């Protein structure tokens, strides 16, 4: 079955860095684009970044452009999100997402807290 397992979250000071990982299994990883979403309490989950199957196209929401980087390692079935120059507003639970034949799959999420 499809599984997405995020890791790498934690507490980081403003201006610091963090790398999130999403290890996938149960599907042919290289054939699908993936996304990172984030959610704070009381708000809807929103997309942060996405990458296509070939890895040549990436998208970032405006608030993270120039600070976050998404990339994939198909040999490891893993997609990454590098968070640099983090801000308190980046505090959220971060989720990995893939859609396969119209079905949405989510990881369990990893908490990122930006605080001094």
What does this structure look like?
- This protein is mainly beta and 116 residues long.
- 0% of the residues lie in helices and 53% in strands.
- Strands 2, 4, 5, 6, 9, 10 and 11 form a 7-stranded mixed sheet that branches. Strands 1-3-8-7 form a 4-stranded antiparallel sheet, with no helix packed on it.
- Strand 7 and strand 8 form a beta hairpin.
- The model has no long low-confidence stretch (mean pLDDT 97).
Counting DSSP H or I runs of 4 or more residues, the number of helices is: 0
As residue ranges, the low-confidence spans are none
- Structural class comes to mainly beta
Strand content: over 45%
What is the residue-averaged pLDDT?
97
Question: How do the helices and strands follow one another from N- to C-terminus?
Answer: EEEEEEEEEEE
Write the layout of secondary structure elements.
Layout: E1 3-7, E2 10-12, E3 18-25, E4 34-39, E5 46-51, E6 58-60, E7 68-73, E8 78-83, E9 92-100, E10 103-106, E11 110-114
Parallel strand pairs: 2-11
Antiparallel strand pairs: 1-3, 3-8, 4-5, 4-9, 5-6, 7-8, 9-10, 9-11
